[in-house]
Amino acid sequence: MKKTVMLLASVLTLVFFLGPAYSLDAGNIEIHGFISQGYLLTDSNNYLAETEDGTFEFNEMGINFSSDLTDLLRIGLQIFARDLGTVGNDEVVLDWAYADYRWLDWLGLRAGRIKIDYGLYNETREMDMLRTGVMLPQSVYSELWRDSFSCINGAALYGYVPMSFMGRLAYDLQIGAMTFKKDAGFTRAFGRRMNETLDISSMDADYAWFADFQWSTPLPGLKTKFTAYDIEGMEADGNITVTMMDGSTVNSAVTYELAEKNGYVLSLEYVLKNLILAAEYSEDNYQIKTDMEAQIQAQGNPPEGGLPQGDGPPKITSEGWYVSASYRFTDWFETALSYSEYYPNADDKDGEIKNDHGGHPFMSWLKTTTLSTRFDINDYWVLKLEASYNDGFGGINLADNPDELGPYWTLFAAKMTFSF
Amino acid sequence: MRIWQLALTMFLLSQYFASVPLSQAGDILIIANKEVPASVLSKNEIRSIFLGEKIRWDDDRKMTFVILKTKEHDEFLRAYIGNTAAQYLNYWKKMVFTGKSKSPKAFDTPEKLLDYVAETEGSVGYIPSEAYSDAYNDKVKIISVK
Predict the structure, then answer these.
(1) In this structure, what CATH number is given to the domain that contains residue A267?
(2) Architecture of the domain delimited by B26-145
């Protein structure tokens, strides 16, 4: 695998030293790529990696090939590798690969491995050079869900519908299978949410759908977007350690079935010359079918009438929103300011429930203020420097923090990207 | 109710006045291959074409748009697309890096763009008005903006 990463990095380096153009053209095949190296440092708490000591385990690289086979049919693929702490480790994966049949302006079909269209920026989150900041607002684009919410293996219908003086409507309807890796993405976040001792061995779902509608309003520069999604037949297998009523502990294999896993994002973006204002609000719901811990405890001391069934644990809704403003001062300098709030459990915004269960109340929220700067050195090189002040530690994987957590912490991020 | 009526009236007036300077704009000319079936395009249609949303002419022929790398590119974007050059480049990088489209063909000079449009069926582009001469009358057509 390391050989593949080296090959990918070598190709990108070769392109740089040969003198890059905006793209490479090999006959009818268009080639683009990017490579970035970042650095993360926190004053307290490890965030996504061993950041308290500073870490360079933060990079991304990708190269894509595409070609128009006919006037209507287009094919392409992108291979991608990334590293962020213990996630990715520069393993080369197929980022996207699909055929695109553009039949009419208002109707096209994509089939294959497709980037998930979720909110304003999910499709392009791997491509750092397409935004001002280093990190996307975690309230809507959680790093923990990144791998699972990156791509879907399936098909999509999409199109653009002019609406005369009412502006333009774009839609994108995607359906297919999502990928849940054991040690990354949603799987890690799910395990921590269910029980600290839960070790997930596999996670899968029957299928998922995403529906997007984007309206470019008659007011020039103003667009709004709505994304809804639903994941059907989702379940996770693993092992859990439960403390029984008599104080003994039991290790048991468990299967968590989700009765519900869905959510939506509302997005708004306004572009006025060099100013871009954006705001997004998201909700994410899940509900487990059966209370596994209650079942295991009941097995040790079965109540009359058998094991508890019922409706299972209550539905949990997480909620997040952010507002951001970015402004390009010159051809080479752009800055952005954003404020983001995220609540893993919208019914526990003040942390009382978390406190009652022995946790830190500040793990019930994450409030982040971020100042980003971007320097476009030339058409191919971008340098970004970013500082975030954080209140709380909600929705972040605790595995990187065996020691005591602090409620207030600052993240510094730097990233250099080359793209062509 | 009156506030809504007033708002609607102001909106319709702003749309009308917003369209006037474009139809009279003398600095940028929208040009197309001689065989293209359209002679008039709305500002919305031009925006959709140069954002890759509209890909076919009314006779079902494939549409190919081309852009300039000169300073007129900024003027065109400001007048028709409502983007800066950096935002437009970012938009197309997003399309390219998600596999949705190839990058637009771009030319260093209006003359090269004119030659390409003259030779390429279904193509459309823009040039500064001073770059156009009668010599191109038989090769390309000027598109009016309504």
Answers:
(1) 2.40.160.10
(2) 3-Layer(aba) Sandwich (3.40)
Is A298:A307 a contact under the CB 8 Å cutoff? yes
Query: Is A147 in contact with A82 (CB distance < 8 Å)?
Result: no
pLDDT recorded at residue B2: 58
Residue spans of the domains in chain B: they are 26-145
Considering only the beta carbons, identify the residue of A115, A164, A276 that sits closest to B98. Answer: A115
Give the pLDDT confidence of A166-191 residue by residue, as tens digits: 999 999 999 999 998 887 767 877 77
ipTM of the complex: 0.86
Q: Which residues of B touch A22 (CB under 8 A)?
A: 103, 106
A169 touches B: beta carbon within 8 Å: no
Domain, as residue range, for A46: 2-419
Averaged pLDDT, A291-318: 65
Q: Which two tokens stand for residue A76?
A: 């392409």
Q: Which chain A residues are within 8 Å of B62, Cβ to Cβ?
A: 71
Distance CA A241, CA A222 (A): 52
Q: How far is A273 from chain B (nearest CA, A)?
A: 6
Domain count of chain A?
A: 1
pLDDT (tens digit, 9 = 90+) per residue, A244-282? Answer: 777 788 888 888 898 899 999 999 999 999 999 999 999
| C-alpha span between A92 and A86 (Å, rounded) | 15
